[in-house]
């Protein structure tokens, strides 16, 4: 397995040999920032294209197929359109909060995005409480949504933002508890530690029953956290036009749109990292030849394959189920999902104590 | 049996079961043949469904005969005054006066394809065909004459 930290260490030592360490770190930070933004934009384009195609296929349509072969330039055209549109400020809106909100949302998304370990040694933020940091950073996003609703001076935005706030705060508990279930088993909170633990088998196999339950509850809670269907009632078109981003246009709307898709990817990627082994190849104990072949596939390929598989699961869920009502949504979380997560956490703890896992 | 669906766990398992049924249905649709028609490209092989209402036509047989007896019921049935049945009186060989169709005018521009004319016709003389490419540059081209030049009404065969 190729270790990407060889490259980063070589870059660092080369830079420090010609300049003081402060400058070297600054240059590295800028490069990393550009890298994050580029990857973010490219992934967003890929995800939006995938969403439109998969949605079309689920509705027995073909999806976009006019711009370029199979419509592959459709999203580029949409991005160009979005960039050239006017950014609109509604009258009597709180201008500062109104303009701040999309940046808060996208910054939260960037922060969580930078936690993802893409390859061995290629994680940007990796420290001993990485999982905590991810959960904390992802909850900044709800602040941006609430500000967008409050700052827009629009009743639809406000209702959408309030729904979104209630939803995200509730479902964060389930998401956190499901991740904690995995942390109980691995005994570490850093992403690299969690992945190292899965070297001889992904967590979903090692932790069997509680790990599978935790994986499913994490998908449900994560889906609700990024406001996607069937939990997309903060932006329920039929009642709230577009929810918290009703008043936004141009690239400010684009930021919400990007953040929505990237949050979905982040949820999928975290699920893939924690439960499906991240960049770890599929290893089956006893089959050395098979394992050696699997090792030839680079880590980032494994990583993106797993993440996009989970993204497909999320899209499958989104385009199958109808939207919930707000009381159904909250009673589902507080009466069903969270008790299940807590019972599951207890089950996992007992299993670890008595050594019943693989 | 009824109790099973009202308990907490009964609800949970019932919900999971129905959700899985929904997901099974949608993944089947995902792999099904797509219904999208790529219209301008597939003009040649495009086939509209049988009951599609394209243009009003008056079918003629190979002897250039139609079924219209110029009764004007279609004209009365039309809510938009789209149809004009212009008839003329002639005298047949055996000396009877008879009203026959002279011109059957149909204004495509004001037709709303409600099919009341077809339903009103007692002789099934008119019907809708599959042709839907109606765009023209001049409004006057939308006024169509449905009976062909030199056509006449099909004589009923004498029974016995």
Describe the 3D structure.
- The complex is a heterodimer of chains A (358) and B (160).
- Chain A is mainly α.
- Chain A has one domain.
- Chain A has helices spanning 5-18, 21-58, 74-84, 95-113, 130-138, 140-151, 155-186, 191-197, 203-206, 208-225, 237-240, 250-275, 288-296, 299-318, 326-353.
- Chain A starts with a helix and ends in a 5-residue tail after the last helix.
- The model of chain A has no long low-confidence stretch (mean pLDDT 83).
- The longest helix of chain B has 23 residues, at 8-30.
- Chain B contains three helices and seven strands.
- The mean pLDDT of chain B is 84.
- In chain B, the strands form three sheets. In chain B, strands 3-4-6 form a three-stranded antiparallel sheet, with no helix packed on it. In chain B, strands 1-5 form a two-stranded antiparallel ribbon.
- Chain B is α+β, with helices and mostly antiparallel strands and 160 residues long.
- Chain A binds chain B through residues 54, 56-62, 65, 316-317, 319-321, 336, and chain B through 12, 19, 22-23, 25-27, 29-30, 32, 34-36, 38.
From the 3D coordinates, which CATH architecture of the largest domain in chain B would you assign?
Answer: 2-Layer Sandwich
Radius of gyration of chain B: 27 Å
Give the class of chain B from helix and strand content and strand pairing.
alpha+beta
Largest sheet of chain A: none
- The percent range for helix content of chain A is over 70%
Distance between the termini of chain A: 24 Å
Number of helices of chain B: 3
The CATH topology name of the largest domain in chain B reads Alpha-Beta Plaits
Principal-axis shape of chain A equals globular
Looking at how many chains there are and whether they match, the oligomeric state comes to heterodimer
User: How many beta-strand elements of chain B?
Assistant: 7
What's the helix-strand series of chain A? Answer: HHHHHHHHHHHHHHH
Query: Structural class of the helix and strand makeup of chain A?
Result: mainly alpha
Mean pLDDT of chain A: 83
Biggest sheet architecture of chain B: 3 strands, antiparallel
Residue share in β-strands of chain B = 15-25%
Count of the separate structural domains of chain A: 1
Radius of gyration of chain A: 21 Å
């Amino acid at each position: 397995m190729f270790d990407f930290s060889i490259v980063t260490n070589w870059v660092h030592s080369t830079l420090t040999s010609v300049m003081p360490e402060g400058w070297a770190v600054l240059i590295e930070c800028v490069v990393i920032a550009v890298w994050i933004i580029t990857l973010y934009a490219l992934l967003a384009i890929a995800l939006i294209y995938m969403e439109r195609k998969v949605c079309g296929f689920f509705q027995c349509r073909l999806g976009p197929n006019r711009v370029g072969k199979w419509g592959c330039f459709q999203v580029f055209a949409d991005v160009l359109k979005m960039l050239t549109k006017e950014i609109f400020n509604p009258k009597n809106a709180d201008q500062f909060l109104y303009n701040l909100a999309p940046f808060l949302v996208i910054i939260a998304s960037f922060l969580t995005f930078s936690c993802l370990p893409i390859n061995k040694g290629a994680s940007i933020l990796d420290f001993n409480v990485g999982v905590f940091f991810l959960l904390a950073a992802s909850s900044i996003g709800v602040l941006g949504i609430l500000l967008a609703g409050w700052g827009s001076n629009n009743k639809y935005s406000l209702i959408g933002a309030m729904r979104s706030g209630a939803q995200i705060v509730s479902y964060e508990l389930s998401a956190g508890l499901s991740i904690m279930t995995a942390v109980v088993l691995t005994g570490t909170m850093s992403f690299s530690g969690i992945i190292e633990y899965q070297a001889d088998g992904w967590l979903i196999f090692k932790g069997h029953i509680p790990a599978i339950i935790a994986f499913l509850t994490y998908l449900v809670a994560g889906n609700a956290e990024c406001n996607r269907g069937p939990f997309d009632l903060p932006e329920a078109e039929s009642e709230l036009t577009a929810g918290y981003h009703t008043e936004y246009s141009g690239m400010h709307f684009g930021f919400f749109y990007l953040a929505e898709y990237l949050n979905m990817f982040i949820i999928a990627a975290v699920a893939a990292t924690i439960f499906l082994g991240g960049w770890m190849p599929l290893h089956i104990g006893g089959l050395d030849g098979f394992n050696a072949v699997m090792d030839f596939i680079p880590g980032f390929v494994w990583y993106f394959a797993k993440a996009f598989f989970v993204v497909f699961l999320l899209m499958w869920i989104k385009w199958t189920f109808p939207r919930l009502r707000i009381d159904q949504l909250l009673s589902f979380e507080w009466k069903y999902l969270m008790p299940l997560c807590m019972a599951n956490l207890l089950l996992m703890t007992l299993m670890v104590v008595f050594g019943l896992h693989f | 049996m009824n109790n099973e669906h009202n308990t907490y766990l009964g609800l949970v398992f019932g919900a999971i079961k129905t959700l899985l049924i929904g997901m099974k249905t949608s993944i089947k649709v995902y792999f099904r043949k797509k219904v999208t028609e790529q219209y301008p490209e597939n003009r040649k092989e495009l086939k509209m469904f049988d009951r599609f209402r394209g243009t009003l036509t008056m079918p003629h047989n190979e002897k250039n005969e139609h079924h219209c007896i110029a009764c004007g019921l279609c004209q009365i049935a039309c809510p938009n005054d789209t149809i004009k049945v212009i008839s003329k009186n002639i005298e047949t060989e055996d000396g009877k006066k008879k009203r026959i169709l002279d011109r059957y005018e149909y204004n495509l521009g004001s037709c709303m394809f409600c099919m009341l004319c077809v339903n009103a016709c007692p002789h099934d003389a008119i019907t809708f065909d599959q042709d839907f490419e109606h765009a023209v540059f001049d409004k006057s081209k939308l006024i169509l004459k449905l009976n062909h030049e030199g056509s006449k009404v099909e004589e009923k065969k004498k029974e016995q």
